[in-house]
Amino acid sequence: MSIHLPASGPAVVAHGRGDLRIEDVPLTAPATHEAVVEIAFGGICGSDLHYWLHGAAGESILKEPLVLGHEIVGVVVQQAVDGSGPGVGTPVAVHPASPAPGDVKYPEDRPNLSPGCTYLGSAARYPHTNGAFSRYANLPTRMLRRLPETLDLRTAALVEPASVAWHAAGRAGDVKGKSTLVIGSGPIGALVIAVLKRAGAARIVAVDMHDKPLEIARAVGADEVLKGDDAEAIAAVDADVVIESSGSHFGLASAIKGATRGGKVVMVGLLPSGPQPVFISLAITRELELIGSFRFNDEIDLVIDALADGSLFVDPVVTHEFGLTQGLEAFEVAKNSAESGKVLLNFQQ
């Protein structure tokens, strides 16, 4: 049994550079394979901030108003007409990717590399793919992941970014007993630290330019913290595995310098498009493995289990929570990485 749904509802919409609005958007009839989900929480991602601040996220440029949001959890209020997916009343997390195979070659077991892949709240394609920072959202049932009763929705709001972190750590292989270095301790970096801690890393050193992210890094499992401008101390870490999550060429330089000979550097922080200065000669002479990491695949299921059984501790990553009517204030807080971690929108208020 489903609830009576309104014709429209409030949503967070980016109209262009510096133009973010909380406005009513129509709630269209769902497709036969779509469930209607009442959104409970949404986490503000760096890409959401970029669409607001720059009118673009990397090469994805706004050409029309876009409902933001892909880090979302909620409850099914109307089951898909075709009978697929979870029933009414089921709490769910969302895998926001829609792989779309094309003519470009990619490994079949890595759909995150699908050339035509779309993502909720993305302007990578036109028409754009609206996100789910809204009271209700029509979502394909293949995106929905049932949440265990032991996992509260607020904690589950971190499922998507934690899956990005899990995938990044997984790209490095087995980290048990190894020394690790995380460059950039924002929400993704902090979640990487939590994943490394759970995976049994012997030593975790976190780096950031600001005190607040380093405080969060310690709270989720970092053994040591360093300021990003302490080049000598970073180089002395001599880590087996380095995960670069700052998304800057300065961070990548620190990652290369902080890696031991024969070590691995996983690059999950997305640098700006175009040429970037890199200490590639050092990477060559040290025989470093430079490894890209992009989004995630089925790691989301492992993350849900780990959050539910308490083995993945992420609570300190969330630092602020705002109701939807305070959405603009929430984005202002989220852009201040010196003072905030993950900022949540509470759609239940």
Q: How helix-rich are the residues, as a percent range?
A: 10-25%
Shape: globular
**Number of discrete helical segments:** 10
Our Rg estimate from Cα atoms comes to: 20 Å
Which H/E pattern describes the elements?
A: EEEHEEEEEEEEEHHEHEHEHEHEHEHEHE
Using the coordinates above, name the CATH class of the largest domain: Alpha Beta
What is the CATH superfamily label of the largest domain? Medium-chain alcohol dehydrogenases, catalytic domain
Which fold does the CATH topology of the largest domain refer to?
Quinone Oxidoreductase, Chain A, domain 1
Largest sheet: 7 strands, mixed
From the 3D coordinates, which CATH architecture of the largest domain would you assign? Alpha-Beta Complex
- The number of E-state strands comes to 20
Average pLDDT number: 96
